[in-house]
Amino acid sequence: MAGRMMQNNTNIPEGFSLSMALADCIPVLFFSIGSGVLAYRFPSPLFRIGTVLVILAGSMKALWKFVLALKKVDVPFLSRQMRFLMPVGFVLMLLALAVDHSRWSASEVLRHVTRFPSCVFFLAGAAGILLLCWFAKHLNGRDARSNWKEQMVNGITQLCFLLGILL
Description:
about 170 residues; mainly alpha; disordered N terminus
């Protein structure tokens, strides 16, 4: 099994450095803080499980970059799991809104999201998500330059959402 999880060194993408791996941790950190605040405010076990899955997916993708940078070994599972784990986590978080609808107020959320300056950060975050979706379709995830673009946009996007949540 370990042989299937690791590729030989001829498949190692070029340019994946320690600094890139560290940069990949920034959006995970911002998302973790923001979703932790939301999970505290919205005491839903389903939401919390979804949050943990999304954080786990992001952390494993960052770990993939650390392994590439430090060991020069490709462990495809660490990057490919994100295609499955992250969507499941987000679906659970959204499902929690319906299942545990009595634990949150739509009018209160709308008031917070539309209040200045939070609205500016949420709009910027939404624009960042759209750009990340475009990147996912048009950029090569195994290209270092593309990864730097994605991580810069993802870091700014997650920072915007975090600031929108905290303000």
